Amino acid sequence: MACNSHFAAPAARPTPSATKRGVAVSVPPGGAALAAINANRAAARVPPGQNPTESRGAPWMLPQAGLAVFYGSPRAFTASGSPRAFTASGRPETPRLFHYFLPRLMAEGKRVLCLDGANRFDPLLLARLARQRGVAAAEYNQRIRVARAFTCFQLTELLVRAPRWLENFPADAIIVTALPDLYFDEDVREREAWVAFRRALEALCALTRSTLRDKPPGVAVFSDATSFQSPRRAMFAQLAAQAAQVWRFALDDATGALRLLNENSAPRAAERILPR
């Protein structure tokens, strides 16, 4: 299954050299943006039968408008690619999870623009999701445009250029991966990384206010930022501060089920298990 790319990038992707942990960790304290996030770590789970609409937004659905941030470090998928079964390899897989939000959008006839800084767009997985729903993979492909970035500077440029692409491809949803993860690369100087990140954040917020259509597209960021040990993790706090919704992926060690916790609704975090 082919995908369309709007941005030419180098063949090799520099891997951020900041140290990563294998298990998800919370963003370190510091700043008002983190207060609400850290306060929800001990939030109680929703009792069986509780109405999930009490949360701000529906789990496992991308926002119809505004900015939503999805983060966490669920362990790696098994060879089958099932989102319900994980190995203990410790490899973060948050950027790959956006695929499981796509079938609902496709069923609603929505268009999606994916700015993939994590280089995780998987046409084979998307084709499998289409077949499971009795839909031709080509039909999904017609509604998705993908642009890849391999450095933080390229991801910034993708976000800046996105309004121009929306003129020709009026997407209903925009997915961004590896923001701010790519900006943690220690080969990039501190000041340059921050300048590029702030420019990217401005462009991201502008997308949520786009007036190209009657309604601006919903924007969703999938990030592994909290699995890094880097002083630049403060970027994630700034990103979260701009979001209308913040969701955290969590793996239940007892059942192996992947859960999605709403961190905007303390003290009762909304919870949903990944649908089959």
Describe this structure in words.
This protein is α/β, with parallel strands linked by helices and 276 residues long. The protein has helices at residues 32-39, 102-107, 123-132, 137-142, 152-168, 190-207, 234-242, and strands at 19-20, 67-71, 112-116, 144-148, 173-177, 218-223, 228-229, 245-251, 258-262, 271-273. The protein has one domain (57-269): Rossmann fold (3-Layer(aba) Sandwich), CATH 3.40.50. Helix content is 27%, strand content 16%. The chain has an eight-stranded mixed beta sheet. The protein is globular.
Q: Round the mean pLDDT to the nearest integer and report it.
A: 73
- Spell out the helices and strands N to C: EHEHEHHEHEHEEHEEE
The helicity comes to 25-40%
- What's the domain count? 1
DSSP summary, beta strand count: 10
Provide the CATH topology: Rossmann fold
CATH class: Alpha Beta
What overall geometry do the principal axes of the alpha carbons give? globular
Count of helices?
A: 7
In the CATH hierarchy, what is the superfamily?
P-loop containing nucleotide triphosphate hydrolases
Q: Strand sequence of the main sheet, in spatial order? A: 4-3-5-6-2-8-9-10
Radius of gyration: 18 Å
Distance between the termini: 23 Å
Poorly predicted sequence stretches spanning 5 or more consecutive residues: 1-15, 19-57, 76-91, 266-276
Give the DSSP E fraction (strand runs of 2 or more residues). 15-25%
Secondary structure class reads: alpha/beta
Largest sheet: 8 strands, mixed
Query: Which architecture does the CATH hierarchy give at level 2?
Result: 3-Layer(aba) Sandwich
